Amino acid sequence: MLGLLGDEWTLLVLQQALLGATRYADFMARLPISNSVLAQRLRTLCDDGLLQRREYQTNPPRSEYLVTPESRSLWPMLLSIWEWERRWVAEHAQPVPDLRHVACGEDFAPLTTCRACGGTASEKDVVAQWGPSGSWPRSVPTSTTRRRSGQAEAAGLFPHTMSVIGNRWGFALVVASFVGMSRFTDFQRQLGAPPGSIADRLSILIVNGVFDVAGKRYRLTAKGRALFPVVVTALQWAQRWFDAPEGPAVVVTHTACGGRFLAALTCDQCAQPLRGTQVLPAEISAKSFWHSRPESANIAGAQ
After folding, report:
1. Rounded to 5 degrees, what are φ and ψ at 197?
2. Residue of 232, 263, 240 whose CA lies nearest to 72
3. Residue 113 is inside which H or E element, if any?
4. Helix (H) or strand (E) holding 55
């Protein structure tokens, strides 16, 4: 998961696919991306099962790229990213739209709750331990992609998210911090990352207000701790699609009820569980939005 999703172009291409882009020209029009990078990401996403390539024209040959069950099930993570950017990041050229819950008709914010007991949960309410297949060496992110250089180009709807977790080592540092790691030497030793990469990503996390540093310890700020829904939904997605025969990599316990913690996103207005097909940007009517996007009818794709 860290190697696959810890790449900003991958996240941006998936974001646009779930917003309705299907053809090569759609992605080129929506993203500040080069032809070579887009072609490589689309190929990788198809190889990894996150997109499906389908030929819609033979002369000349033309293909479209459709979301799959694997990519559609990323909607809780992408919804959590949307809410984090909307609440915590002010530096948007245009404000991130509010979210509308079609089921109750209200603008809403997603709440992270425990499926077992229904109670709300934050990073303070859970304890994470390695499962049968878990270890830091096994979880070191691997990737063959390169992040784009420079900060001049816009990163779509989620600029801070892309700079924070749109890099495999940045994503790994955030995850490690949630389980209590705070020293540079521990990050380097446990993650096995080059010192230069750790230093670079830590500086970006500090600049973006996700970490602060006191003495030799790097700790999550309130803004950083608010990434908890993003991290836990990404973890659940990973353990669903990349399961190991011997058991889960990470076991998370909800301290309030003592049960295994599985996150569910609920509407803060009607308290009902959210479905991907019932969430859309608030300024777009449900009728026009669904009609214009038959393949991927909301910001997060179908459930």
Report:
1. -65, -40
2. 240
3. strand 110-114
4. strand 51-58
What are the CB-based long-range contacts (under 8 Å, 24+) for 102-106? Answer: 102/277, 102/278, 102/279, 102/280, 102/286, 103/267, 103/270, 103/272, 103/275, 103/278, 104/267, 104/269, 104/270, 104/272, 106/267, 106/269, 106/270
Sorted by sequence, the CB contacts under 8 Å of residue 194 that are 6+ apart come out as: none
pLDDT tens for 112-133 read 999 999 999 999 999 999 999 9
Sequence-distant (6+) residues with CB within 8 A of 247 are: 131, 132, 133
- Looking at the DSSP assignment, which residues form a beta bridge with residue 266? 111, 273
DSSP 49: T
| pLDDT tens, residue by residue, 148-194 | 444 334 445 577 787 788 788 888 899 999 989 999 999 999 988 88
Burial class (CB in 10 A: 0-12, 13-18, 19+), 52: middle
C-alpha dist (Å) from residue 278 to 169, 234, 267, 299:
33, 20, 11, 10
Coil, strand or helix at 262? coil
- Burial zone of 194 (CB within 10 Å; 0-12 exposed, 13-18 middle, 19+ buried): exposed
Query: Is 31 within 8 Å of 19 (Cβ atoms)?
Result: no
- What SS3 class is residue 284? coil
Q: Which of 259, 235, 258 is CA-nearest to residue 248? A: 235
**CA–CA gap between residue 171 and residue 5 (Å, rounded):** 9
Which pLDDT score is estimated for 157? 58
Amino acid identity of residue 238, one-letter, is A
Torsions phi, psi of 54, nearest 5? -135, 125
